[in-house]
Design brief:
By secondary structure, the protein is mainly beta. The protein contains one helix and 19 strands. Strands 8-11-12-14-16-17-18-19 form an eight-stranded antiparallel beta barrel.
Amino acid sequence: MGLHAQVRTRDGWPVEHAVVTVTDGSGGQVLRAAADGDGVARAEGVLAPGPYTVVVTALGYAPDARTALVGGTGRADVGTVVLARAGGTELPPPGTWTVDAAHSSVGAVAQHLGISSVHGRFTEFTGRIEIAPDVLASRVEAVIGAGSVDTGNGLRDKHLRSADFLDVDRFPELTYRSTAPLRAAGPDRWTVDGELTLRGVTRHVPLDLTYLGTGADPWGGVRAAFRAEAELRREDFAINYNQVVSAGIAAIGATLRVTLDIQAVRED
């Protein structure tokens, strides 16, 4: 076998769409192979002894070029090539990832009386993340049960479910879907442009998304962790209820800070 190489990401995942090209001293291509599902590229052939240039490319990754010295075996054994994401960003392997609601959280914080915060969460939600070979073409979507809001106070939660706020009888779900390519915002960080539908009103809401890492779980699966944050203005979704206490201070702040801590499982 004239060529053997293994192509991986920085966190050890195979790059199954990588292409390995071997050129001789004159720049002519002598071997070429695409990596398989395990990130291994193989090509038959016998190479003359001497130096060769090996170039590894993959969509969404920075190319890697190196020199391989071929001896009497006629084989270029490149070993393991680690590709970095273009722009220095990393993501899990391409594919569909399903949000594990049992190990994720959707929380929100609102200001109360201008001096403190009230924390709440939604306990029922689903979501999918489609990670594309080109990172920026990835997509996300989520559905949240409006009636699952929980602030730890039964009376307050009942009011939040009423027509003054979420109006869950008429609008039982909140939905979010990305609508454009991701925008790189730094190493392992992106801005997701998407639309949030709340109380039947749809508005553009950007998410600040951070990738936290990938690892195996005890059940034979692969998991990835993300954190996302967004800020909502209540009036954008026709949630105008409020009370004014002394000195003109509103009981409830005009903005809502939403934080999502997500653990997703890769589908087979």
